[in-house]
């Protein structure tokens, strides 16, 4: 029997771990690319030197230094790390895929591709770069481009805020909300494109396994909510009040305005192509997602 190897860049992270588990359940044998050695792992240097392991049928990249790491100042050096950990890792994988083509190549990007305004965006919306994070999304997606004549199916998943207990935003806000100190960010009126961790993992699985899908997919839930609506849903799932707003200027002071935008601004993003592909969400509404995440 041939083993289906899937190579996952960033497979040690919050989203990566969910992908590793989801793909194992589907019978794949995941190999993680990480900066730290370990079983079933390879380094970025190994990839550059030796290329993809034999029998690799799928390659996925979800690597990327945490943009909202509160211990890191928003310096040119940190911004370079943010950039390289996404763009350069994706370029390396695209080169390895070109040299030894698997069946499918799937990479992540972000909804910062779309400008934060009143419009609704779907995967067919073409947008220009408008700030650092949108430039990053464009370059990240360009880095994944493969030669036109290469017979590899390719997809890019533009993810919204991923909600799950073990990482991302929820890990940072869980304790304040649990002790009743949660609240909306600024006015709370900004849209917050979101998705449950199980659903983003299943979208990757669906894209890898379904030979008929390729291109851009918005990794967001079908229900568009504002930051205030999310705050209310999460607080009520925890049976806590959430009346203490986080002022925008405090976030700008702590994080720098350029990266605080991830929290203070948002886009209305519709997963049109995900729905058209027949994908069924386990958590289509914010109440279902928050009730799951709030469970002990
Ligand atoms: N979480 C979200 O809400 C969300 C939303 C949209 C997009 N995304 C994107 O999805 C990706 C994964 O997010 P996550 O929440 O799973 O992040 P995470 O938990 O912080 O994991 C990040 C992963 O990237 C790797 N990494 C970190 N810094 C790196 C560097 N300098 N060079 C190479 N690899 C590096 C880490 O691998 P090692 O430490 O093992 O090397 C780790 O596995 C990121 O690119 C992020 O921008 C996340």
UniProtKB/TrEMBL annotation:
<feature type="domain" description="DUF1731">
    <location>
        <begin position="246"/>
        <end position="293"/>
    </location>
</feature>
<dbReference type="InterPro" id="IPR036291">
    <property type="entry name" value="NAD(P)-bd_dom_sf"/>
</dbReference>
<dbReference type="InterPro" id="IPR001509">
    <property type="entry name" value="Epimerase_deHydtase"/>
</dbReference>
<dbReference type="Pfam" id="PF01370">
    <property type="entry name" value="Epimerase"/>
</dbReference>
<dbReference type="Pfam" id="PF08338">
    <property type="entry name" value="DUF1731"/>
</dbReference>
<protein>
    <submittedName>
        <fullName>Epimerase family protein SDR39U1</fullName>
    </submittedName>
</protein>
<dbReference type="InterPro" id="IPR013549">
    <property type="entry name" value="DUF1731"/>
</dbReference>
<feature type="domain" description="NAD-dependent epimerase/dehydratase">
    <location>
        <begin position="6"/>
        <end position="217"/>
    </location>
</feature>
<dbReference type="InterPro" id="IPR010099">
    <property type="entry name" value="SDR39U1"/>
</dbReference>
């Amino acid at each position: 029997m041939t083993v289906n190897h899937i190579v996952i860049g960033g497979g040690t992270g919050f989203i990566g771990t969910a992908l590793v588990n989801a793909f194992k359940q589907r019978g794949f044998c995941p190999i993680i690319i990480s900066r730290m050695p370990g079983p079933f792992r390879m380094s970025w240097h190994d990839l550059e030197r030796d290329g993809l392991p034999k029998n690799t049928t799928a390659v996925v990249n979800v690597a990327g230094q945490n943009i909202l790491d509160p211990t890191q100042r928003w310096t040119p050096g940190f911004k370079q790390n943010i950039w390289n950990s996404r763009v350069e890792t994706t370029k390396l994988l695209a080169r390895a895929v070109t040299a030894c083509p698997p069946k499918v190549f799937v990479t992540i990007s972000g909804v910062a591709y779309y400008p934060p305004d009143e419009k609704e965006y779907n995967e067919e919306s073409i947008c220009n770069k408008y700030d650092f994070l949108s430039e990053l999304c464009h370059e990240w997606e360009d880095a994944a481009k493969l030669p036109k004549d290469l017979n590899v199916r390719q997809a890019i998943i533009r993810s919204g805020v991923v909600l799950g207990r073990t990482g991302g935003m929820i890990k940072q806000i869980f304790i304040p909300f649990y002790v009743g100190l949660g609240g909306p960010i600024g006015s709370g009126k900004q849209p917050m494109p979101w998705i449950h961790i199980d659903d983003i993992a299943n979208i990757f699985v669906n894209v890898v396994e379904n030979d008929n899908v390729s291109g851009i997919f918005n990794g967001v839930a079908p229900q568009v909510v504002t930051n205030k609506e999310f705050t209310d849903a999460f607080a009520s799932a925890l049976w806590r009040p959430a009346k203490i707003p986080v002022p925008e200027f405090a976030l700008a002071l702590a994080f720098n305005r350029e990266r605080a935008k991830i929290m203070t601004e948002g886009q209305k993003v519709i997963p049109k192509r995900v729905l058209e592909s027949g994908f069924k969400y386990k958590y289509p509404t914010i109440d279902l997602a928050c009730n799951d995440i709030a469970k002990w």
